Amino acid sequence: MNNPLVSPGLGVIVWMLVSFGILVFILMKWGWPAILKALNEREKAISDALNVAEKTKAEMSNLKAQNEELLKQAKQERDEILRNARATSDQIVEDARIKATAEADRIVENARENINYEKLKAMHDLKNQIANLSIEIAEKLLQAELSDKQKANDFIKQEIDKAHLN
After folding, report:
1. Cα–Cα distance between 125 and 131 in angstroms, integer?
2. Is 4 inside any structural domain?
3. 145 and 155 in contact (C-beta within 8 Å)?
4. Residue 9 lies in a domain
5. Burial category of 152 from C-beta neighbours within 10 Å (exposed 0-12, middle 13-18, buried 19 and up)
6. Could you tell me the sign of the dihedral formed by the alpha carbons of 114, 117, 119, 122, in that order?
7. Does 91 reside within a domain?
8. Above 70 in pLDDT, residue 33?
9. Distance of CA 89 to CAs 75, 77, 82, Å?
10. pLDDT-based confidence at 83, cuts 50/70/90?
11. CA-based max dimension of the chain
């Protein structure tokens, strides 16, 4: 088992240490600063992204609260509009009912007046008819009674005497 890769000699170890030292020196001189710079920039970018995310989250929360407030106000306005519409509707119905009642009262009053007028007219006509009938009956009675001349003359004298007395 004298394989040089498995058991290296002292010279190989020295050259490996020298090459490793040169590699470390080159990396320390030019590699590490670039790597550290890239890591710092990446860390800063991540930090900035987290800050922006926090700000965005806060803004979103604020916008959500504003949206909820606007929605609440819109609901209140809608409820107020509906209440006003109901009140207006109720007022219109009440006004219509009052107008209808007034109109019905006016119609009833007109009907009563017409009934009273027709009643008075009917009573007047009835009185006129009774008077006409009375006159006709009186004429017939007088004709029947005054068919005799002597009775007619006596009746006329009697009526003339009454007429002078009054």
Report:
1. 10
2. no
3. yes
4. no
5. middle
6. negative
7. yes
8. yes
9. 21, 18, 10
10. very high
11. 199
